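#struct-pred
JK: can someone run the complex with magnesium ion? inputs below
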Amino acid sequence: MTNVAVVGAQWGDEGKGKIVDWLSERADVVVRFQGGHNAGHTLVIDGTTYKLSLLPSGVVRSGKLSIIGNGVVLDPWALFREIEGLREQGVAVTPENLLIAENAALILPLHSKLDLLREEARGPAKIGTTGRGIGPAYEDKVARRAIRVCDLTDLPSLSERVDALLLHHNALLRGLGAPEIDRQELLHALIEITPRLLPFVANTWQRLDAARRRGDRILFEGAQGLMLDVDHGTYPYVTSSNTVSGQAAVGSGLGVGSVGYVLGITKAYTTRVGSGPFPTELQDEVGRLLGERGREFGVVTGRPRRCGWFDATLVRQTVKVGGIDGIALTKLDVLDGFESLKVCTGYRIHGEAFDHLPASPAAQAAAEPIYETLEGWSESTRGARSWAQLPATAVKYVRRIEELIETPVALLSTSPEREDTILVHDPFAAR
Ligand code: GDP
Ligand code: IMO
Ligand code: MG
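RT: done, structure tokens with the ligand placed:
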């Protein structure tokens, strides 16, 4: 038995939440290792919908330990709003089933303010961030001025850290012509939230190491997608963390050898929220239909997602940079009823053929997809739970995708419901 890391293989919203929830039945511990509440993960269990942003998607099952790892940027106010929402849905989140890394960096109210101010200042060149303060919080982390969870327990040092942080931020705010942050107000807010947060705080790397040594199964839950990775994505239209599988180790405090099988999640077509290049985007009736059938609206911001054909060139690339061993192909049902389907097999950029998306933003923006056309199917695949329930042309579509991305399909998803899932091979049983 091995551990499993789940990562998005496109631009996010691939259905990671559903797959992590489904896989968590087989896991003992689920750990989030990057991102923050920019993530929006949807679980549908027996008709009830749960929307998670910061909490690991195993939290809805009883008897599983959820961990928010050191690689996550944590907004404590958002965390308690989410815990409260789940409590209203009958899910208890307590220090018994949730632990938070003491070395995780905090997202403060000033981070989301700055995020929004900067987006406004960029005008039409905006990234289209979720406005949650993710970028500014990670910047403070690498600049070594972040307030971390462990700082909350030491008031004199917290006060010094707040001063150092505000020295930077207030200078920035003055430059932007925005009101400065009041030191006392921030300190007071932190002191107020601390007693609620502390019961959850732990040395999570040690807990994970103990779990690993006991032979417990660990499920690493990625947020966003590999094309939003700050190194490997469509920079600068990316998020501010590494979303590749290597980050599962870094962001949880285990060695890379503990990560195990890497499962990439990809939709059977492509979507993206926010700005940035998207070679197979369809700004026509087909794109509109995909969005409508796939209910493509962001969980966090409610923005409509941009839609397009499956880009096998892109996923082949993310499979490689992300060290993906197998794919969970989701939303196959959204393609029901299309007479024919297109799949991108390469790009043409200023007349030259490419088998990958180059790093230059100008080249990415100019990339024109080279398509292969496949036969569609008129039957419904929605809710299928075995290969036998899929029409032959749908199976052919899946097989062709496997060939093009050079990776096998481990799981198939045919509706938002937890159990509408086809297991091809068990990631936990691999190797
Ligand atoms: P995540 O961010 O990767 O967890 O994905 P989101 O939850 O943001 O977006 C995926 C959306 O697709 C959610 O509304 C899911 O309920 C839904 N979904 C997941 N798998 C399937 C599927 O196989 N078919 C359909 N129709 N919807 C799905
Ligand atoms: P899940 O986990 C889709 C996008 C934003 C924006 C860019 C930067 O649900 O798949 P940020 O707020 O992170 O600085 O925004 O990244 N983005 C996502 N897109 N799914 C997500 O998460 C995303 N998280 C961030 O739309 O383009
Ligand atoms: Mg999402």
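RT: quick notes.
The mean pLDDT is 97.
DSSP finds twelve helices and 20 strands in the chain.
JK: thanks, will look after standup
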